[in-house]
Amino acid sequence: MRERDEPEVVGRRVQRLRAQRGLTQRQLAEPAYTPAYISTLEAGRVRASDEALRHIADRLGVSFEELAVGRPAHLATGLRLRLTEAQRILADGRAEEAAVQYGLVRAEAAAHGLVREQADALLGLGECALETGALSEARDCFERAEEHLAGQALPVRVPAVRGRAVAHYLAGELRYAVYLLESTLDELNRGGLHDPDALLLLYASVIGPYMDMGAHARAAQAAEFALALAPRAGDPALIARMHRSVARTLLAEGRVAEADASLAKAAELYAQLRLHTELANCHWMRGYVCAQNGELERAETELRQAHTMLARTRAALYRSQAAVELADVLHRRGRSAEAAELLEGVLGDFSSERGAVHAAAAHRLLGIIAEDARDTEAAEEHYVRALSLLERAGAAGDLADLCRLLGDLLRRTGRTEAALDAYRTGLGHRTAPGTTTLGPAPAQPPLWPAPPAPDRYPL
């Protein structure tokens, strides 16, 4: 049985629409039904069959859905059109404006009991909150979206899980973010749910937490998988705009199913545009690997590519994180002044609850640069700030190295006992790369295609 309002509600609706159109009960009933049947239906004493409601809806000139549940004709399709418009605005980097649109759609969908549209609006609100750094608000939106999608297949729920994990990661809760992403990957792959879009979203999103926890091998593998899966649309924005325009035309002509199909294509392309942030993180990861291998020129190229892509998306927090990695490479290439200027420009984007690990990395590098300039007081101040941030985030691998730097500085300035305390703290956090608090790697899809050669990866 279709979703249906109670008989008395449907009856009052039929009576109101009949009166508005100046029809008698006989005119509404004939030729298939009697005036007495219409009278009984309007009084709410009978539950009309689908066939009867379709007959009455046709005579009244309204849709079955509007008569049965009171929704305006094509409401759901109209809301999906507005959702794709909000996606476009967010893809342009106007998060605050997009949030207003998503909020209006969510309220209207809730008023008419449209669960999937509510969930999509909540996902959009969560992405807007991530973009603006409102992490608690983002988590709340993603959690509520998950609740609305509880009965859906896992690939449908992946954007909500991923959003929640990213919010936890940016708040410095690395272990929990990795747990969410890895357990979802594991469930997808072990269950044979090899949805490319869902896998791309998860693999791309887990790179940052892996890196910050010292799991470099896993991060490198996730980056290669993500880049191999990356969509290759020539210009997603133009194609999405075309589908949106087509959907409007089809909707005006009453061709709802075709309009829905065009809107689905537009929504998919706007989702691909939002992946620019994740793809930029993949370039950042590749730059990191190059830096570790001593290929500093290529590392700088990759990191500048990541920084440029993130600047286009106006993702301030991610852009600042990439800037820290780029500054490290610049310093290693002998351009310390340029590195310090870059770091000082982004420190204000971080806090202990927002990008703590990269804030610590910025202070660590500024401390090294200060030491090189023989400013030990400034160096110690930066190291201590970095230590506090890393302890809060639980980034064990970075803590060990930082304690060594601080201990060496304290020893050179004659504070032996304080230096020993710093070394002991570092030893307590020493761990092998790739094993920091992580269990077995998540299952991979069977017959996974080999990633293409690096020079074929999309930018």
UniProtKB/TrEMBL annotation:
Low complexity bias spans: 431-441
UniProt region (Disordered), positions on chain: 427-459
SUPFAM superfamilies linked to this entry: lambda repressor-like DNA-binding domains, TPR-like
Ranges for domain HTH cro/C1-type: 14-67
Bias type Pro residues, positions: 442-459
Domain of life: Bacteria
Gene3D superfamilies per UniProt: lambda repressor-like DNA-binding domains, Tetratricopeptide repeat domain
Pfam families: HTH_3, TPR_12
InterPro entries noted in UniProt: Cro/C1-type_HTH, Lambda_DNA-bd_dom_sf, TPR-like_helical_dom_sf, TPR_rpt
Protein known as: Transcriptional regulator
